[in-house]
Structures are given as structure tokens and as C-alpha cells.
Amino acid sequence: MTDNSNPPGKAPKGAGLEEARLRQQAIGVKLRHMFDEVVNEPVPDEFLEILRRADKRSAGEGGA
């Protein structure tokens, strides 16, 4: 006798959950890879200059 609890063409419920977990894991790996790439990008010189000017202003105001 065969198990007819799943309609024809449908995967067992556990298989669908496992597939969803594998998909989530693959997405997580890709996201971590993208995050690492962004973190390792150099900071543009223009942005560094803005930060330096902001630091000078806050240091000047804090010492007065």
C-alpha cells in the first residue's frame, strides 16, 4: 500500500520546509558576501574631508 497523503505532483511537507531553509541559507550567504564587499570599499576622499571639518568644528566648540 502507498501513502496517498500528498496530492500527485506535490512534494511532502517536510521537503518544502527543507527547500525553504536552503533558500534562506543561500540568501543569507549572498547578503553576508555583499555586506563584506561594501564594508571593504574605500571611503571617498570628499566624505573624509567632510568628516575632518566636522571634527574640527566640534573640537573647537568643545574647548571653548
Q: Write down how many β-strands occur, each being a DSSP E stretch of 2 or more residues.
A: 0
Distance between the termini: 88 Å
Q: What is the helix content? A: over 70%
In terms of DSSP E residues, the strand content is under 5%
Rg, rounded, reads: 27 Å
The residue-averaged pLDDT reads 84
Determine the structural class based on helices, strands and strand pairing: mainly alpha
The protein's oligomeric status is single chain
Can you summarize the main beta sheet?
none
Q: Any low-confidence stretches, pLDDT <50, length ≥5?
A: none
Outline, from the CA principal axes? rod-shaped
H and E string? HH
Count of separate DSSP helical elements? 2
Describe the structure.
There is one protein chain. The protein is built from 2 helices and no strands. It is 72% helix and 0% strand. The model has no long low-confidence stretch (mean pLDDT 84). With 64 residues, it is an all-alpha fold. The relative contact order is 0.06.
Give the helices and strands, then pairings.
Layout (H helix, E strand, L loop, with lengths): L12 H27 L5 H19 L1
Describe the structure concisely for a colleague.
The protein is mainly alpha-helical and 64 residues long.
